[in-house]
Amino acid sequence: MMKRQNRFKSKVAWMAIGSLILLVCNTFGLFDKMGITSTSGQLIIDSILSILVLFGVLNSPTDANNF
User: Fold this and answer.
1) Cβ distance 12 to 52 under 8 Å?
2) Within a 13 Å sphere around the CA of 48, how many CA atoms are in the beta-carbon half?
3) Residue 50, phi then psi, degrees to nearest 5
4) Where are the domains of the chain?
């Protein structure tokens, strides 16, 4: 029988989940409430968070030690 691995041990997966949560919060205006109102600042933050989510999608969740 195959050994089942816990997919939530991957740090990259947790980083991607956190980034996705922040992107959703930004959609609902979290950054405006924090005082980040400039459009360029929000675009930079959105770009960085999107890249982190992409890393999580490309990550192999079955290997907790390697990307």
Assistant:
1) no
2) 9
3) -65, -40
4) 9-57
